[in-house]
Every structure is written in structure tokens, then in C-alpha cells.
Specification:
mainly alpha, 3 helices, 51% helix, Non-ribosomal Peptide Synthetase Peptidyl Carrier Protein, Chain A
């Protein structure tokens, strides 16, 4: 059975990954000349729309998390309305990995 990194993942690790993505996106888009604002632990429940996270950044976050944890987030969650906060992303990632582990246990 494959061991998933997600087993040890907590919401603060998701926050760190998202901040890394925000930092990378700011580096890529130096034309804006706006300082990047990293997210804080107090913003875990805050809606992304309030944090000025746009749809392109959202997709970058999703792709990066899928690559980092070698999983695929189901299509029904790939909307900003479904994963519109750090905590909601964390919950979806936990659900996906639990389903993967359950599916693998059923086949062994």
C-alpha cells in the first residue's frame, strides 16, 4: 500500500504551501509592483475572495497541491466556491486521501 504524505499534513502545512505559491506567483508577475501579502494563521477560515486570491492563483494552488501530494482532486471540488478557504482546501485534501486509502484497503 502506498504511503501518502497527507497522513501528517495539517492545516498549517497547507497554509505554508499556499504562501509558497503566492510568493512564486508574485515573483513571476513583477509588473504589478505590489508587495505580496502572505496569509496568516488567523486567515485560515477567510474566504479567498476577501484575500484577493483570483481564479488563476486558485488553479495554481490546486495544481501545486495535487503535485505535492500525488493525488487528484475530484472535479466537483475544483471551484472556488467549494474550496474557498485554506481550511476547506485542507478538508478536501483529507477527504481525498482518506478515500484513496480506503479504496486501496478494499483491494488488498
Amino acid at each position: 500500500m502506498k504511503e501518502y504524505k497527507m497522513r501528517k499534513l495539517d492545516v498549517y502545512e497547507v497554509l505554508d504551501i499556499i504562501n509558497s505559491i503566492l510568493h512564486s506567483r508574485a515573483d513571476e508577475d513583477k509588473q504589478k509592483k505590489e508587495p505580496i501579502t502572505l496569509l496568516t494563521k488567523e486567515q485560515i477560515e477567510t474566504d479567498f475572495s476577501e484575500l484577493n486570491i483570483d481564479s488563476i492563483t486558485f488553479i495554481s494552488i490546486v495544481v501545486s497541491l495535487e503535485n505535492e501530494y500525488e493525488l487528484e482532486i475530484p472535479d466537483e471540488y475544483l471551484l472556488m466556491t467549494e474550496m474557498n478557504s485554506i481550511n476547506k482546501i485542507h478538508q478536501v485534501l483529507k477527504e481525498v486521501t482518506e478515500n484513496i486509502c480506503t479504496d486501496e484497503d478494499a483491494t488488498t
